[in-house]
Amino acid sequence: MPDSHCIILVTCPDRGSATRIANTLVEENLAACANLVDGVTSIYRWQDEIRQDAEVLLVIKTRAARFADIERRVQDLHPYDVPEIIGCDITAGSAPYLNWIDENTR
Q1: Distant-in-sequence, close-in-space partners of 13: CB < 8 Å, separation ≥ 6
Q2: pTM score
Q3: Beta-carbon neighbour count of residue 101 at 10 Å?
Q4: What is the pLDDT of residue 51?
């Protein structure tokens, strides 16, 4: 593959903030696509407490070269002090889909 690609996972507290972040990333050509997955339950430790919250998961498809730009943009837009921003390499994918990612993240 001429360019490496990645999926970025971001959890959001609600559909409104997830939609705002997803729209911004796609509008700014940072991401080709962002899926919103409702119904995620997160159990985590924060400030010495175990918490459980409903969240919306963003699954963002982009080029790996855009990770740092997306990280900065999510931090600007996200309501959490420490948002989850995790990049996972796409090691294989259909050539037409990966080309579509390239065309939409320039």
Answers
A1: 53, 55, 56, 79, 80
A2: 0.93
A3: 20
A4: 96
Structural domain count of the chain: 1
Range of the domain at 71: 5-103
Closest among 13, 34, 26 to 79, alpha carbons compared: 13
CATH code, domain carrying 59: 3.30.70.120
pLDDT at 79 over 80: yes
3-state secondary structure the chain: CCCCEEEEEEEECCHHHHHHHHHHHHHCCCCCEEEEEEEEEEEEEECCEEEEEEEEEEEEEEEHHHHHHHHHHHHHHCCCCCCCCEEEEECCCCHHHHHHHHHCCC
pLDDT exceeds 80 at position 88: yes
